[in-house]
Amino acid sequence: MTEQIVILDFGSQYTQVIARRVRECNVYSQILRYDTPASEIAALKPKGLILSGGPSSVYAAKAPLPDQQIFEMGIPVLGICYGVQLLAQFLGGKVEPGQKREYGKGNLAVKDQTCALFAKLPKSLQVWNSHGDKLTRMPKGFKAVATTENSDYAAIENRAKNFFGLQFHPEVAHTPRGREIITNFVHAICGCGKNWNMRNYVEQAVEEIQAQVGQEKVILGLSGGVDSSVAAALLHKAIGDQLTCIFVNNGLLRGREAEVVREVFGRHFHIKLQYENASKLFLDRLKKVTDPERKRKIIGKTFIEVFQKATKRAGAAKFLAQGTLYPDVIESIPIAGNPAAMIKSHHNVGGLPKNMKFKLVEPLKCLFKDEVRQLGLELGLPKEIVYRQPFPGPGLAVRILGEVTPKRCDILRAADSIVVEEMKSSGLYYKIWQSFAVLLPVRSVGVMGDERTYDFTIAIRAVESQDGMTADWVKLPYDLLEKLSNRIINEVKGVNRVCLDISSKPPATIEWE
Ligand code: XMP
């Protein structure tokens, strides 16, 4: 069994960040619901347990509480924020509402440098706090090892039992040395080795896929995006020609997208690739449709139809592979006021219809996005695919306002290729979340040579974001903007004006439709 740390989730918006930090220490971690029975946890043989933060008060009537037996498992426990308050509550300490909420940067003074959590760290550390309640009496057997301006018990330990508690958040970037605290916990205290990396994962995943699939055939819908591409390469390594990838060209792809997929997967990896050119069908159905929601519905429905027919042509397959990632499968804890629970993507595609009787293979479902990229590189996928920016399922249709026509698609494709090309040569493409062109079908007057023009407008959208949920517009350098504008207006027929979108999300969205 993989050596691991179990994280119990009490609803903090940072729970996934804790899991990622642990994995960055090359230790596997998984997130379980706060009320997972201790016997189930013990069956995983974790080397340590982390209790996450959370928005509740431990003394509240509906406070999420763990199985008390978790403190009897004989493994190290680290409570963070709400987690330390739980430790205190269960083991005989006292938690009360603080005089004032402690929020933001604080200075931690380490009082006992022999505490293993703070090994090799200085006596004074910058930390990030976010809590209202306060530990006012330590549980028996515990000792305060660090303090902040507002708290005498900012870090506590019970050395005999290997129980630790931190009132601040070591997992966030605002606690600059927090990674070292987590490293100390997982390696020095829990005794984990450094076994979790994508090279080892390939071996493990290949075995698991082979065991699950046997001699059966597997189908995968390949979009050319990071997740389906990495899933394809991994499955191919595991089961070779038992895998058929279906790539649907919906006529709404960017320039060269279909070629790159055929080149990389067909000619380079020799993956069985079934190319479905359904451009005409999609574009016919989009004729005269201007409502954004209707466009999305038509595209979604048509995709399922085309994919369903394609799977029949691909022959009898028992399995359907999907590039589901870990954040999609972590059960969110329905705790009032938990932003992580509220921020569930509105784009979650409904999935394929129930009448498609496939069993699922989801070889990425325990990985975070950054791990998927690492895995892609490990499997030999090019940077162009592994680090590509997100591209919406409905493609260029949500970047052409109003009716989508083949001509408008061509104009946008040409302008977008220039944006991608210039963003790549400026070095910014891989540093930001997304950068693309949007076609505004409003005509304005211009002059070109001696001629008067009456053409469309292109808007440039470039945003920075962590997860697409919120975004800031990027202050692109003027010389880059100048190049973009010149090239688009000179090279793309049908465009005589370029604008820059300077809206953040919220209240705007990243895509225009
Ligand atoms: P918005 O426009 O809502 O987009 O700010 C947030 C992120 O989601 C991407 N996006 C989609 N991705 N299917 C997808 O797979 C979709 O229908 C879809 N719509 C938007 C968008 O590109 C951005 O990264």
Individual helix count: 15
* CATH class division of the largest domain: Alpha Beta
Helix percentage range = 25-40%
Strand content: 15-25%
- What's the domain count? 3
Strands, count = 18
General shape: globular
CATH topology grouping of the largest domain: Rossmann fold
From the structure provided, what is the oligomeric state, counting identical versus distinct chains? single chain
Q: What do the pLDDT scores average to?
A: 94
Structure, explained:
The protein is an alpha/beta fold. It has 3 domains: 4-189, Class I glutamine amidotransferase (GATase) domain (Rossmann fold, 3-Layer(aba) Sandwich), CATH 3.40.50.880; 198-386, Rossmann fold, CATH 3.40.50.620; 405-500, GMP Synthetase, Chain A, domain 3 (2-Layer Sandwich), CATH 3.30.300. It is 32% helix and 24% strand. It is built from 15 helices and 18 strands. It has helices at residues 15-24, 38-43, 82-91, 178-189, 198-213, 226-239, 257-268, 279-285, 292-313, 326-329, 339-342, 369-378, 383-386, 406-426, 478-491, and strands at residues 4-9, 28-33, 48-51, 77-80, 94-110, 124-137, 143-147, 155-158, 163-166, 218-221, 243-249, 272-277, 319-321, 359-361, 434-448, 451-464, 472-473, 495-500. The protein has a 9-stranded mixed beta sheet with strand order 2-1-3-4-9-8-7-5-6, sandwiched between helices. Strands 12-11-10-13-14 form a 5-stranded parallel beta sheet, sandwiched between helices. Strands 15, 16, 17 and 18 form a 4-stranded mixed beta sheet that branches. Helix 5 (198-213) crosses helix 6 (226-239), helix 6 crosses helix 12 and helix 14 (406-426) runs antiparallel to helix 15. The two termini are 46 Å apart. The relative contact order is 0.09. Mean pLDDT is 94; it is low at 337-350.
